[in-house]
Amino acid sequence: MNPDQADDRRATMLPERWNVVKDKLFAALELEGAERTAYLEEIAGQDPELRLELDSLIASHEQASTAFLNQPAAHIATLITASQQDLIGRRLGPYQLVRQIGIGGMGEVYRAFRADDQYRKEVAIKLVRAGQGSGFILDRFKNERQILASLEHPNICRLLDGGTTPEGLPYFVMELIEGEPIDKYCAEHKSSVEHRLELFLQVCSAVQFAHQRLIVHRDIKPANILVTKEGQPKLLDFGIAKILDPSAIDSAAPVTLFQVLTPGYASPEQIKGEPITTASDVYSLGVVLYELLTGQSPYQITTSVSHEISRAVCEDEPRKPSTTVCENQDRPTSSESSGEKVPKRLQGDLDNIVLMALRKEPGRRYSSVEQFAEDIRRHLQNLPVLARQDSFRYRTSKFVLRHKAGVLAAAAAIIALLAGVGVILHEARIARQQAQLAQEQRMRAERRFNDVRKLANSLMFEVHDSIKDLPGSTPARKLLVSRALEYLNSLNTEAKNDASLRQEMAAAYEKIGDVQGQPRQANLGDPGGAADSYRKALAIRESLAAADPKDLEVRRQLVPNYAKLSDLLWAMGDQAGAMEYSGKAFKEAEALYHGDPKGQVDRFLYAKYRMDYGYKQAVVAGNRDPGLENLREGSSMLEQLASEQPGDLQARRILGLSYSRAAEILREDPKERSQALALYKKAITTKQGLVAAEPNNAEFQRLVAYDHFSIGELLATMDQNDAALAQDREALSSFQKLAAGDPANMQFQQDIGRVRAQIGQVLIDLGQLSTGMDQLRSSLSTLESIPDASNQRSLVGFTILTDQLWLGKAQVMLASSKSASRQQAAEHCREADSWFSKCLPGFEAIRDHASPQYGGAARVNEVTQETARCKRILSNVNRSRPQ
């Protein structure tokens, strides 16, 4: 039967109805002639609609071509080889196919190299397998490509690029993994039990990473876990993976999906066609661990027939790993010195851990891969583990379910012989019912817990991230993340012993901080609230890192958390705090990089936060030379990363920022201002490329506008005021468009206030006093509405003080005008004095309590000089001018 037809039919009916149709169809196909007719007539009498559906499906099945069965196998092999040869040497985009290195149920994988002379790089390219171009297969293939695009983890094969062949079939480009399946790797290297467990923990980290993004792999097996020559496992093949979405029904046809899963590693619920959750991957990981430790399957299967394997998986109980090793002569090749050591090493905790992962009921396995991995880590540290042997009561209940008839007969005999025991049995039955009710209530509570947790994750990691860069999204972002945090706080009591849930809570606190007041993003102008949220996230992550220093994912999350708090403290005027947390970010990123200098993720973290730390060294701490050196080293690494992955917009974004920041440092030296101007223009070119890639990304648009504003500031210091005004006005126009689309975003309001202040100062320098003062008043009006306006050491507060100073200076200029009468001069001086009295206390506080770099002392001297000038003007006017 055509898989596409099965897909279409299933899409129009409920899963329960499809299961009935599927079972009846398979039964009918096994019958011939009159037997099939009689079987269908019997169904028609009970369910006429089902009979019509079966007739249609049987007709489709019989119409399918079977001509290939009459062709000799050698001819078919020749056709397949010819198809493969047609692809060898072919170009797909910039890549040229070299040879086939793998083939699966849906796709073919080829070794390829980049052939456009840009740079040399070997990759793996996956294409839809010849003859597999149905709608179902194409959807699955595109689904795998989308899933890989969302996964960036050191133990997951990375997606590098993608496209479509001239025939319209999709393909994608992955990193080339040259390694061996994990079971063969361990056998050939005679790995110890501890080493096998360490490798397995890295695989768990990759699967848990996918689960946190609501992705279930569904085909975990040794063949899909390759270990590189450096000893790093890589998880491959997300071809039948599933994105968990409570609102959607999985569109995969049950028949087709069963054909591509691997029965020996599939969970019982997968084989039965029941709903798939992360517990299915826990089971598959249990099978993999069983084979790593024993070299054997968990089940005593002597056939390779799929339905026999499926029956064993669903009905048979796996033996203890230690028992399997004792009874089997082909023990796993291990570095353990004695053959007796391996079974003894597995007895107890490892037996219990593996068997808990392999339980038939999803609700009785580990609740998450993280919990599974945590039990292994506790075993390695000689700590008590969660896994325990099944109780006698549980084993008894399973025995009763398997042998109902025999148990009932035995019970009848016992009742006949011991009638007096009837009352006791009645009481026991009531107790069992009560226990079953309690169990059902506990399972309902667990389901509610997981549903709430899943919803919170969806709000934080999917819905929020999909809108965060769109214009006008700030209020919606606050609502989404706040609601997600409410859900997670309601689970706080559960989080104490659940590392993965605590990680999710830390991520929620960090996102709340971003929305509240992250100065480099759209925010609501609440820096105090943002600082509290960032510190809560740090407290969780630091405790997790301290408990398990080998958890690289938590340590990677610490780096941007430190840096964001540093940015916020700097914007709030806390320079010492800003440098402290910037140093922590750089130190952690450096340690991760030295642990894996070739890892793409850690290279990027190190380059980004070395550049960021160098920038703050020079600008915040005043250590210009070492800061500039660190910034340039980070920028050089970013250029290399951007050239290796031109499609990585975030790498290009940080590279553009590095150019802007280097220019900001250089412009302070008059001799280097032309170099600074060139760097600003280079930054704009880089960021305009980002806007072209994502025209609706408000953050990218703001970065370009901000560079125009910075060029305006630079040109003003170079006395090129007309050119400075042109840059400032272009920046103002862009900021106003962004603010119109997102009025609640205080970052845009701050940008507008600051650029108006700059325009006002330039106009006053040009002698256009009235127009310049209008711009300054508009700047004040905008900035004073921002919540952090009263903090004089913040960027907003300092700009307000500077606006007041320039308004006072403009009044002094008006008073000194020869056309001003004595009365007008006096009025202008009174107005100037009013502005000076407003800004002077703030500048004095900055002089006395802030770093000299803030220029508090210089501003106080400027106010004093302007006040004295005003007094001289009044004195001269009183002597020489009429009323």
List keywords for this structure.
883 residues; mainly alpha; Phosphorylase Kinase, domain 1; 6-stranded antiparallel β-sheet; 6% strand; disordered N terminus
Shape: elongated
Uncertain runs with pLDDT below 50, 5 residues or more?
A: 1-15, 64-84, 245-259
Straight-line distance between termini: 105 Å
The largest beta-sheet arranges its strands as 1-2-3-4-6-5
If you had to describe this structure to a student in words, what would you say it looks like?
Helices cover 67% and strands 6% of the residues. With 883 residues, the chain is mostly helical. Among the domains are: 67 residues, no CATH class; 92 residues, Phosphorylase Kinase, domain 1 (2-Layer Sandwich); 207 residues, Transferase(Phosphotransferase) domain 1 (Transferase(Phosphotransferase), domain 1, Orthogonal Bundle); 57 residues; 107 residues. The chain has a 6-stranded antiparallel beta sheet, with helices on one face. It starts with a helix and ends with a helix. 41% of the residues are buried.
SSE map:
Blueprint: H1 3-11, H2 15-29, H3 33-46, H4 48-63, H5 73-87, E1 91-92, E2 95-103, E3 107-114, E4 122-128, H6 135-149, E5 159-164, E6 170-175, E7 179-181, H7 182-188, H8 193-212, E8 215-216, E9 225-228, E10 233-235, E11 242-243, H9 254-260, H10 268-272, H11 278-294, H12 306-315, H13 321-327, H14 341-346, H15 349-357, H16 369-380, H17 392-402, H18 404-417, H19 422-467, H20 474-490, H21 492-495, H22 499-517, H23 527-547, H24 552-571, H25 575-595, H26 600-619, H27 624-644, H28 649-666, H29 673-693, H30 698-717, H31 721-741, H32 746-765, H33 769-783, H34 795-816, H35 822-849, H36 856-880
Antiparallel strand pairs: 1-2, 2-3, 3-4, 4-6, 5-6, 7-9, 8-11, 9-10
Helix pairs in contact: 2-4, 3-4, 8-11, 8-16, 11-15, 15-16, 19-20, 20-22, 22-23, 22-24, 23-24, 24-25, 24-26, 25-26, 26-27, 26-28, 27-28, 28-29, 28-30, 29-30, 30-31, 30-32, 31-32, 32-33, 32-34, 33-34, 34-35, 34-36, 35-36
